[in-house]
Cytosolic carboxypeptidase 1 (Erinaceus europaeus), 1326 residues
Amino acid sequence: MCGPPPSPPRSRPPAHARSASLLRALARGRAEACGGRGAALTLPGMRAGSAAAAAAASASPATGVCMKTPGGWRRGIRRASREQSPAPAAPSRAGCCGSASLCQHPILSRLTNNSRIVGLLAQLEKINTESTESDNARYVTSKILHLAQSQEKMKREMTAKGSTGMEVLLSTLENTKDLQTTLNILSILVELVSAGGGRRASFLVAKGGSQILLQLLTNTSKEAPLNEELMVQIHSILAKIGPKDKKFGVKARVNGALNITLSLVKQNLQNLRLVLPCLQLLRVYSANSVNSVSLGKNGVVELLFKVIGPFSKKNSSVMKVALDTLAALLKSKTNARRAVDRGYVQVLLTIYVDWHRHDNRHRNMLIRKGILQSLKSVTNIKLGRKAFIDANGMKILYNTSQECLAVRTLDPLVNTSSLIMRKCFPKNRLPLPTIKSSFQFQLPVIPMTGPVAQLYSLPPEVDDVVDESDDNDDVDLEAENETENEDDEQNFKNDDIETDINKLKPQQVPGRTIEELKMYEHLFPELVDDFQEYDLISKEPKPFIFEGKVRCPIVVPTAGEEASANPGSLRKGVVTKANMSSKGDEHDKKTAFMELAKEDTPDNNERLLQQQLGDQNRTISSAHGLNNDIVKALDRITLQNIPSQTALGCTASMKKDYSLPLTVLTCTKACPHMAACGSALFEARTVQLGKLCCTGVETEDDEDTESTSSVEQTSVEVSDGPTLHDSDLYIEIVKNTKSVPEYSEVAYPDYFGHIPPPFKEPILERPYGVQRTKIAQDIERLIHQSDVIDRVVYDLDNPNYAILEEGDILKFNSKFESGNLRKVIQIRKNEYDLILNSDINSNHYHQWFYFEVSGMRPGVAYRFNIINCEKSNSQFNYGMQPLMYSVQEALNARPWWVRIGTDICYYKNHFSRSSAAAGGQKGKSYYTITFTVNFPHKDDVCYFAYHYPYTYSTLQMHLQKLESAHNPQQIYFRKDVLCETLSGNSCPLVTITAMPESNYYEHICQFRNRPYIFLSARVHPGETNASWVMKGTLEYLMSNNPTAQSLRESYIFKIVPMLNPDGVINGNHRCSLSGEDLNRQWQSPNPDLHPTIFHAKGLLQYLAAVKRLPLVYCDYHGHSRKKNVFMYGCSIKETVWHTNDNASSCDVVEDVGYRTLPKILSNIAPAFCMSSCSFVVEKSKESTARVVVWREIGVQRSYTMESTLCGCDQGKYKGLQIGTRELEEMGAKFCVGLLRLKRLTSPLEYNLPSSLLDFENDLIESNCKVTSPTTYVLDEDEPRFLEEVDYSAESNDELDIELAENAGDYESSAQEEVLSDSELSRTYLP
């Protein structure tokens, strides 16, 4: 025996030892049979250098297995009993090259089938090294081919990691001169790469296969005559492995393979078997733009038009490949121009119509799709689009696509046709005299550089709406740069991430001297006040008593959370107060305009709610002091002719005489919260609105039954009533608000107030085919131009436009605070194009809208198209709806904004942006928000808004109500003016904390040493949700909730609730009156242009100078492209980690305290999503509040809190659109989170001894050496849009795009090509 004696079962040698024994046996047997000559053998899975391999190598000086006869040694085993003599040297299917001792070896019976392919490969390698006769190589390769064709396992073994089989085959292919051997190896390679996906093709490329095959192609082309079979095999393999080789285009060009393949097609057009793989390889060549141009010069475009043709049942496979190749070639502008010059656009349209008519069973959809793809490529250039229009392509594709709508499987044809038509739709200019705002404001200082400076430098005669760049003239061939489609092994790299650790490290920079900062001392009286003039004796907190008009506690909604256990808690649901039990006649008369149900039983509450919701059209009781005729008599409330000394009511001027009878409505009900109403409310053409009685909600004082509960209780009381709303006060404030257009009108929703509706509003499910239907309707405008009315019905730029009194035309208005609507054009009877106003002193930022509509009829579907939006995508594509407020509904006790609209989508339109409007970029288009509305009432007055409006006057009203209602014995509340804005409005600064328990030294000291929390909001006017979150924060801080009292005792809150009052007042979306994004000015704010930022930063610098750094800074924002609420913070370590420099990130030592608050909020706030948070610092955000406060001021916990404009896709509110209730709850939960943070950051007891009062402050200062930045990469404070983009919205991104730039196109992958519109919705919509 050759091996060691058997071991006991428990001490059986390991597998590698058994393998070594086996190899030794094989080696000895071979040595006996073949005289010590043979090739070394490595079994699959045996790594070089392993124990088994070493044993095999060391068995004898000439180890190996005799494999002259493939499979001979296995047959020798079977014949071991016959003691045959050695087989002859010549190849024989029956011979055995082993000796009797080898064949009789019992261990060989354990060998698996793998040894057969390994043996064959070993023999092939031996043939290569010894230049053995070709018949042996031919025989061995034929056996390997047989195994590859019959056994999938053999293919896996040959392409397994560590296998050397591929190198052996390629080496043989490179060296052999035998035609049959070459064909055998090529057939083996075809078998290997034809299955197993792209992994095997990549494996072949990694082994150098593409270069060897290209060289073989070149060598073979020089032989005469050409071997057709050889050329078919070579082209087939190259077509499969070419896409896996990043440098294949360069290799093919260098080897001269392009012209070889092209010549083969030219010479063998009738030989379909050869033409097919050649065309496939031409398609791969064309992926390289330089190759594509080179092929075009040599006539490939003309050649392909000889292959494709009208409908035929024959040669469909060649037709399909030819069209795919043509589509790839036409992505080169040079080739596309050549095709246009030869009239091929008309040819393609003719062929497409022919296939469309004859392919009745839709069996050739791929061919029809290929024709459309070729049209799509050729129309990337202006000449192609013009040729398409001249050939009547719009009408042809429109008609054919409409005929395809009935068959779902033809959706790819409809979608591609839609894409081509939208791209070829002639670019129109916006129907505006200028893209600059309709309103002008002269700046005190003109910036030297930047977009505002460019705006002011434009001559007045320049047409800035459109310019020559919009058509992107085509470039010549020489301008086409070589793009080799190389990837540099990087899938994605964000160059915006800051990688310089020295720049990331916070470096407290005073910026201004101590003397300069002393101007802010008067805004921090809490640091010096000794409270000696206050009567602070009791150490027990006094009960919370409202001394103002509002007698109910100021509380914050919890968005569906359970109310506290207080039996007197307010129930949810808004109803009209009916027969309530009274204790006297005076109490009976307290009938409110809007009131909360006080019944404790849910059943009774639900009954009343259903009764209220069910009676949609009833007339309001005269007790309300109003009737529905007022809606007909008023177009809007105005501020004209209001005596300044009266606050008893407001007047409204009528635009027209409704011929209503003279009526006198008297309000006889007592209003405990308001001044007496005017007696004559309606006279002739002048309407005087009396007070909407009891706009405040009368509630019984709640007993605090939770006073013994933990101060960390997180329950927040529910209040659906506008407890802080006072219509008269609002009017008085509006009269003092300064706007650039000098508004004199008030919108009804701002006057009446808003309360959250008592029902949930789910995220809208997108219906099938809505987007392409809307696009088709737009295309109809071009095809059927006579159907377009094109009538201007509203125009801010032309105040003298004719106001038509026709009954079927809607009337529009936006001349009120925060309003934004510039122009309205009636397109069809019930369809209107709306154009938004630019931000003042800017020429873009169109997204926020807020306007009034009247004159509608019920039961009619009105379509509204806002046609000059700029963002590349929107949550309107993912279930968000615009908001509507109906005055009729408000008078029917339903005064709330509701999500409304159907057939909503957001897509790129045919209106072009000039380079001036696109920040220097050329060829950009605007986007359309389209939605359809059915109005519930006739001649109603309705308002539409991008999000829940929250005006500057509303903020001032709320602050005044909070100030008048608070208990000065319990709450320290101050409202100061931080500064004046450019237009002269005051920017409020609010300070909130708890009064000291007494004026004793210990309590005063504790008061002064409370850590600061600095909050700000509404730097971007269009992000109104930030103000609603801030409202929730303010109301909670001023409430009598025990947690709120604990919070006030823990911190001093400095709050700037509106950083951009001018932008909010004037209806801007993003900028202030300076025309600049204020959240990009924090590094170097100009006191003349950015006063609110300059002084807000000054406050923080002052706190840093006096060693009182805030524990937390948070700037409230809104987010238009993501769902949920989330935060952005700043971290050096996480920023470095995102640069893939793991070694550097490991060296960074950082306090992870910046993650504490977001983590707390994710646990207590149902709308908050921790997974959406990011703590990466980016270069483009270095001048934002969050980064500057973190880096320059030194606040570790510096955040931006983003609230969605749409809704939530996780947690309690999953699938629901967000409302003011949820936003206010988020503001309240943020406060609760701060109290939790206090507990987590302080190991001491909650009531700190006076000797340790500075502990929290020391903690802040010790932790302020850390970093946390914002992570947005768009042109706004927004991160990348993480949801899948609707390709229809991005389909027409650039006019002239090359192959490498088409990754984001509508049908950029095979998966997208087969998705229907409904499937796209199901795939990408949440």
